[in-house]
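To assess whether the prediction recovers the assembly geometry, we first specified each molecular entity separately, as shown.
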Amino acid sequence: MEELILELKQQIIEVLNFEDMTPTDIETDAPLFGEGLGLDSIDALELIVLLDKGYGIKLADPKAGKEVFKSVRVMAEYIQANRTK
Amino acid sequence: MKIAITGIGIISAIGRDQTETLASLQMEKSGIGAMQYLRSTHTDLPVGEVKFSNEELRALLQIPHTEAISRTSLLGLSAAKEALCQANIQDVQDMAFISGTTVGGMDTTECYWEDWKNGQKLEYIAQHEAGASTKKIAEHIGNFAYSTTPSTACSSALNSIMIGANMLRTRKVRRALVGGAESLSKFHLNGFNSLMILDAQPCRPFDATRAGLNLGEGAAYMVIESEEEALERGANILGYIAGYANACDAFHQTASSADGEGAFRAMDKAMQMAHVCPCQVDYLNAHGTGTPNNDASESAAIQRLFGENIPKISSTKSFTGHTTSASGSIEAVICLLCMQHGFVPANLHWEHCDENLIRPLLHNQTAEMEYVLCNSFGFGGNNSSLLLSKTVGTDLSVADVPILITQSEIVLEAEPKQYVSVAESRRMTPQTKQVLSVALKALEHHSTDVDAIICATQYGCMRNSVLFLKDMLSSNEQEVKPTPFIQSTHNTIASMLAIKLHNHGYNITYSHGEQSWHDAMQDVQMQMQLGMLQSALIIAFDEKVEEWDEMLQKVSYSSQNIAKAQIITLTK
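The predicted structure of the complete assembly is given in tokenized form:
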């Protein structure tokens, strides 16, 4: 699990272009949207692409992302339970 | 001056001309269906295609196979010829031609990108840029006094109509052919798909179960001239441009604000220009794309503006699909056809009431209409509204006296770190960051908010366009990312600035080759003459991208990095 969390943090930094950040700057349980990292709806779409490409999970409804992308930990748990690759 | 409309031309999924379009509308027959002509792998997505292949369009327009021409230009030429024919105009020497587009030649670029690398089909390279599609159409019609290309994504064609009206009111030309053209492309189909706003079913604007839009294509133009000119030459007047306005939502690159601030301002200003109150509007042709966000935001703006007097409303995108940059003029022409034939068109496929939204008209309804409002909104909150009048018109002010303006020093360099934070710039390319900084630096010496933000670019945000195109082609349309698509529109810079500055003023981008800066400057001066603006920020932007530059060099063209900004103020 910890490995997947670190991997996710690295991917978030890369995909969303947080150039000056390192994985230690992202708190595992902090909200990704609004407060915390302050992501928006475009980032949510990028994370949906990340789930599909990296883990073979297809989210058909963009609103479903709200639950899945609550925090890095929630995201990691969702991936572990649903990944197809 | 009353601005009369003396000719219209249209081509879309519901017909190749006025007659066919009217018949489809009267029969409530949608043109949205399975993909027949676009060679995309996303065949599950319904589209509103013009029911002719490029070869068939060429044959209809008598264009030889050897000539390099994009589908956007073919569609545009068809509608432009029809409008001029109805207006009975053979000579266009005293006319302006203003045609909005964003796709331009992208449909051929995506088709021939690999061929170009091998030195094939090179004649299509010069057809890529937005302005080239306008020039191509003009080339087949005649020697216009002036032509230009506004490119503000889905509001482009309505903005063309406004620019044309301003040209008449400042007596730059006697007549203008105004509107827009846009073909479907795999590029924007994949782009909208990556934003997850395409419905796999026929779109249902304003329905509680609406799940997105269907893309369409087409072109429409109208001939406009002063009523005096029209009467003098015995032209038949089809209607009048009664009022118009563009305002920026200044909220988000792709989403509309919850209260529809920009939409509210655009509609309100258009009606104020005509001194028309909400209760006088007989019909509103909504932008109504069918996305959850647009329809909610637009409804909020309509409810706020019209209160208890909500007019009959429908979105004819349920017939044509969302024809993106051409939608403004396509829907304005549809409004004119309906006004002439006395009926309000239906909003097809609406079944489930959403308590918070306006309730559209389910079926065609007979109605005598004097005032019709037509909305057209683009990415970045570029919101435009046009008020048409059947018989009354509006006596709009004219101004042909030169004005005194003050031009600030042109800013060419700025240190991005001083102007754009790391968090803000994470979606920007280095050149985008540079131009934004240059614009913000120019604003430092200007004490108040500017009334307008106007951008000029030849190729637009090319780094993101190339990035998205390459991902799309190499993955066979399977792996594209939303960010480069969002950031690829010509109007990206102008809208990013509006969002950062919370600027709700006039917002536009010209993309007509090297002439774009001149066009932007002319726009400012016209609006200052007419008392519509006191100040404006003008920005020139272009981005040298290696792969694109290599293509250009094959035909002895080149591109360069351009970032410059200037403030223009009206001297009191």
